[in-house]
Design brief:
Oligomer: homodimer
Largest sheet of chain A: 7 strands, parallel
Radius of gyration of chain A: 22 Å
Structural class of chain A: alpha/beta
Distance between the termini of chain A: 63 Å
CATH architecture of one domain in chain A: 3-Layer(aba) Sandwich
Order of helices and strands of chain A: EEEHHEEHHEHEHEEHEHEHEEEHEHEHEH
Largest interface: A-B, 60 and 60 residues
Chain lengths: 442, 442
């Protein structure tokens, strides 16, 4: 029994400093917390589930308004918010986003994401003592390392011991085979095999190949793919090849980050469990500023194959605008796992350079949400950013969507006048020095 | 009149966010603060000096113990601490360090450094409305950008408008000449010429050459060199050349960071004012952690011409030790002044990788002090680190000195068991993941 309880039966988790603290997902708004009394507490035995709570009549009254009743495939009626909070979402694989979109505060959206992680992934993983994790992103697209950091954070919180990990750059067939040989004696009842989340299923073949290697090799183990977005980018023959590959595994769960990906996944992978689940970077939680803004508007503009190819409009002369992709914002390299943290930190720093952010990168949106930076999102080429927003973050009060670059700039200027007038608080101050000086000797 | 007062006559300074806050050096321990009633308040006129305070009899009783009476050249008697706080230190150029070494808390040492800055540099610079600043360090030796950041911070606090700056990499003779031509019409009563501090007088010729260029060109302006350490590294003929060059200016002030440099400066530069003053990086103030530790001990080991050439001892197997110089920890490059901030931030990140730090770099010591990381210092080849420590930081309770690398490691281990057992608080957690895993596929 890994889970610990305090004297009132509430769950504790062990932080790395060794002191007991309550699970983050319990830090919901105070009113909701009162309904979080754990059912079926039988003195610390394994039967206690951390994901089912007593629902009082008082909280039945706060209804979740369901925009489309068809969403609730398994419970097709309006549902009290509190009842929703009691559901084991692995049994309701399409409705995990039911509450999140109604939340307007960053902290609440983050808490809800962590609650759903604990609910869905907790249910899937809690029975395992050990995990091995392939394809931890160690490259400069800061969103992927942020996901990796969230995954590691979550495993730590759940108390699952990581026996082995493999950074993307090191996940060769040979190393997958080495890992298999090294841990083949750990039983499939004790060890789960995990694959990094992201936005690269059926679209970035080097990563589908890593998954192929793992799925083919670990046929006897439960495999869970952390939350993904699906982009059907390949030609039909190749789609078919990987579809069959994924369907070949007897115990594969694919978590997906949006309804569009859910629909595709459910259709293409009938052999797999497909479950809606928010992006793992939300495990990082709310992040305190550690740097002041250098620009009024920081435009994180993707320069990869997912760009929609828009042109940056000319800003008004009174606005300082900086446009850059963060893949060129290079992080000091180390050969330990701290590199993944530093990549993430560098992404968080990159975004703090703007009082307001405009971005067409999903993790420009997600990390800005963790930081509390007001921002405008543009979609990528296949709808990933807006699909995510539609499921999880559409209620956020400091986020705007834009269809064109001109609209994005106009909305960013509105956000700037509403929220962006001051230096970032609680950080070292170094503002106003950047563009206003006569730096004649560059 | 740039200085602003509140309704009680206390000084305000304008933060970049635009709200009024009290000067940092007023944030001394509460007891001391009570004696900080400003003398001679005459309704906001320019005669009000910010650096003289009323001294009550109560506080006369808290004597500063003076280790060597000869230190007090101009006031050769034991002095009440409160009376020391009332001195205009530009008139007592050798005793600015009288109080700092008795302070045991990081916050107090930082406050005292900022108080002395305000006292000494405030007195020197307060009459100027404008400044130009040469040789702002934009290279990867993180201590120098940290000094630059402190200088900019201080000018901002004093309300002096920076008309022009020149990063080290851009301070060519031509650019010094350009700056002169551009600002020659700003009167010497209004504009001061400033030169970056550091540890490079009479030792790093490219920087002495920049100063030569500025000093030769700006003969009619007041020039102040921010706090330096002096290392007489050149052959005699070259020392003599630069000595004459510095003495050629009619209004040059050289601030020095330790008593050794004071003695050399006073002897070699009779034409200049030489005044003791702490390192400008202390203007950054106390820094909150933004990253967790990756190692038990981070050894920031200098690999430049100032190393003493020691060999790293083998650590006990239960300790994780990482040895690295921070000049190879490369910062993402931008062409605006934010680069100086990012270089500093990267230095602060580098140090946070250790629960405890060992270093022979002066700004390993100073930035660890700003962060509150317990650390052990070794000296550099010419005594710069220990000389600084002797003047300003020798009372700090979480700092140890070591004469050998073996001693440093042993003392670091002691600090670790006293202070270093937990994750850094208030930062994202990511610890325990670095070295403890079987990462068989590097």
């Amino acid at each position: 029994m890994r889970l610990k309880h305090d004297e009132k039966g509430r769950l504790l988790f062990t932080r790395c400093s060794g002191d007991g603290s309550y699970l983050n997902y319990l830090q919901l708004p105070l009113l909701l917390m009162r309904s979080f009394i754990i059912k079926g507490h039988t003195g610390g035995s394994r039967e206690i589930s951390m994901f089912h709570f007593k629902c009082t009549s008082k909280f039945r009254k706060s209804l979740v308004k369901i925009p489309d009743p068809k969403l609730l495939l398994h419970k097709p009626q309006a549902m009290p918010q509190c009842e929703f909070l009691t559901l084991n979402l692995t049994h309701y694989p399409k409705i995990a986003d039911l509450r999140s979109g109604y939340l307007s505060k960053n902290q609440d959206v983050i808490d809800e994401a962590q609650r759903v992680h604990a609910n869905v992934l907790g249910d899937l993983l809690e029975r395992f003592s050990y995990a091995i994790l392939f394809d931890l992103a160690d490259y400069e697209n800061k969103g992927d390392p942020a996901i990796a950091m969230g995954e590691l954070q979550f495993l730590k919180r759940l108390g699952i011991q990581l026996l082995y990990y493999c950074k993307t750059s090191a996940c060769s067939d040979k190393n997958v085979e080495n890992a298999f040989l090294k841990f083949k004696d750990v039983s499939s009842a004790e060890m789960v095999v995990l694959l990094q989340g992201g936005g690269n299923m059926f679209s970035y073949e080097s990563l589908d190949k890593i998954r192929e290697s793992v799925i083919t090799r670990f046929q006897d183990h439960t495999i869970v793919i952390f939350p993904q977005s699906i982009w059907l980018r390949y030609a039909d023959y190749k789609l078919d090849y990987y579809r069959q590959m994924y369907n070949s595994h007897p115990d594969l769960t694919l978590l997906v980050r949006d309804q569009e990906s859910y629909a595709i996944g459910e259709q293409m992978l009938p052999s797999a469990k497909v479950i809606l689940c928010p992006d793992m970077a939300f495990q990082i939680g709310l992040v305190a500023f550690f740097a002041p803004a250098s620009f009024d508007i920081l435009w994180l503009k993707r320069e990869d194959s997912e760009t929609t190819g828009y042109v940056i409009p000319r800003p008004p002369p009174y606005l300082s605008l900086h446009v850059e992709d963060w893949t060129n914002w290079i992080t000091p390299k180390t050969d330990t796992m701290e590199h993944i943290f530093h990549l993430t930190l560098n992404g968080l720093l990159f975004l703090q350079r703007g009082k307001v952010v405009i971005t067409d990168r999903l993790h420009g949106h997600i990390l800005s949400t963790l930081l509390g930076i007001p921002h405008v999102i543009l979609d990528n080429n296949y709808g990933k950013v807006f699909n995510y927003h539609n499921s999880w973050t559409k209620g956020l009060e400091t986020v705007r969507t834009a269809r064109t670059a001109e609209q994005a700039l106009a909305k960013a200027e509105e956000l700037l006048s509403s929220y962006g007038g001051a230096c970032q608080k609680n950080s070292m101050t170094f503002c106003d020095y950047n563009e206003n000086l006569s730096q004649i000797c560059k």
